[in-house]
Amino acid sequence: MTDRRADHRVSRSTDRETPDCRGPGRYLWWLVTRQGRRVAAGALLGSSWMVGLTLPPYLLSRAIDDGLQAGDRSALAGWVAALVAVGLLNAWLAIMRHRTMTRVRLDGAFRTVRTVVAQATRLGAALPRRATAGEVVTIGFGDVALIANTLTVTGPGVGAVLAYVVVAALLLNVSPLLATVVLLGVPLLAVLIGPLLARLQGAEAAYRDRQGGLAARFADIAGGLRVLNGIGGKDVYAERYRRGSQELQAEGYRVGAVTSWIQALGIGLPTLFLGTVTWLAARMAAQGEITVGELVAVYGYTAVLVVPVSFFIEGGYDIGRGLVAARRVIRFLSLEPDPVGRRADSAPLDGPDGPSVLRDPASGVEVFPATLTALVSARPSESATVIDRLGRFVASAATWGTVRLDEIDLAQVRARILVADNEADLFAGTLRDVLAGSRDRDQESLRRAVDAAMAQDVVRGLPDGLGSAVDAQGRNLSGGQRQRVRLVRALLADPEILLAVEPTSAVDAHTEAAMATRLRRARSGRTTVVTSTSPLVLDRADTVYYLVDGSVAAVGTHRDLLDGHPGYRLLVSRGADDDDAVHAGDGAEAAPAPRKATP
């Protein structure tokens, strides 16, 4: 598995499907080279179309000079026919160019999306610590589109250069003065637009960063709205979001101001350029230096030249925005997952042949096979960190049997050790599919797991039972229902070692007592670790580890620690009602617990 991770280091690999993340320009070039033939076809079609636009003025000038002025109807008809044929050919070229460049754009978008999704999968549990949800959303919906749009420059961009050269050559045959004006005018336009494009990149980058941060804040508010309502913090966070939105608006005005100048100059300067050349040509025609047909041709050439000049400006604008978007994408692709293995250059080892002790030297926790072990801490994050080390989601010196956990083949670790927490994703689908996951489960297995997790009321409360639709992340379920659904899913997986983080924190006391008893029964003969401060759960554990500052301060049964450790007793004490529930035992299972909407 370590070899596979090494192969996916996007900034170093030379594999054809691995993006080049050495810079935003290199990334855009990588997208171009992934579909080289299609881009070449688009460039050929775009160049042919753009050069083809220069032919009608020439044909029209010949029709005027050879046909109209000379009074030759046959010549006039011939040139008009040629003009119609060229018009039809240009129309076909325009259609094919657009179709080809649309495919280029879509290929670039899908390839970037696939790369970003693969990186998010590679980061795994480290993703929330490496990037905010808003940043990922901004990349997926905004940056991908900008990058894809930048790729279309490869078609008309090449054609614009050729059309510029062709028009200059044609004008050279008419008048060296006009050709000189054209050759000098277009670079002058680039000089005027260039500084604005550079300024746009800076403004666009600041805007995209602030947009990502605001999107992350919105996701946090939406995800914790119930909790914020409960503690009266909704107005505070709403005000923060409002201020952030106003700052983003101000940044957007900066981007808009620069963009408006670029677009205004992109339209105004070529038009001014057209007027200048036309005025010079008209003076030359009035003085008899060029014919009327040549005057029409010059006007046509210059009008056609507006198209490539506009493409130059728009292309520069698109490239600038594309570089900003590509820079954000490669920044995301360059993130590294948490280091979970130290033998990157060695073959991974096999896990223990049978049940073995799982040890975390950093905390002193030892998990023995076929036992229910509980971790207790005043700070839940400390016990969750121990779970992450035992589940090999962060780098550690944890061992499984006599072998370091990070030296074991990761596929084996994932197949035999399961970490179940309350942030695990619930994908949209029927309740049966959400519970069963990727494997087919028979009805009896589902029934036992649902019963063990005290989730019968979840099934009965939905209109079609196991066939009912569940929204993404279980949004149509309460907090307690989602927690039990996640526990059902973990029990159905039936791992050799189950590491469960706060599996009963969102249910009422009676349901919690029944869940603790049934969890112990369902996992009989298997290794289970839970984190909790509930005496209802701790009383069922074989061994309880009391953690202080992330290290074991005391170990024993729940009763032993209650009698011998005041700090533990103070932490887990819930009052007389919960003490009664502890001694009630399985009596809490007699009647199903009521549905509870928990924040």
Radius of gyration, taken over Cα atoms and rounded to an integer in Å: 35 Å
Helix percent reads 55-70%
Report strand %.
5-15%
Largest sheet: 6 strands, mixed
Mean pLDDT: 79
Structural class: alpha/beta
Uncertain segments are 1-16, 575-599
Question: So how many helices?
Answer: 23
Large-scale geometry? elongated
Strand order of the largest sheet: 6-9-10-3-11-12
Cα-to-Cα separation, first versus last residue: 39 Å
- Number of extended strands: 12
Written account of the structure:
Strands 6-9-10-3-11-12 form a six-stranded mixed sheet, with helices on both faces. Strands 2-1-4-5 form a four-stranded antiparallel sheet, covered by helices on one side. It has 23 helices and twelve strands. With 599 residues, the protein is an alpha/beta fold. The relative contact order is 0.09.
Summary tags:
disordered N terminus; disordered C terminus; 6-stranded mixed β-sheet; 599 residues; 4-stranded antiparallel β-sheet; alpha/beta; 65% helix; 23 helices
In short:
It is built from 23 helices and 12 strands. The protein has 599 residues and is an alpha/beta fold. The longest helix is centred in the middle third of the chain and has 53 residues, at 234-286.
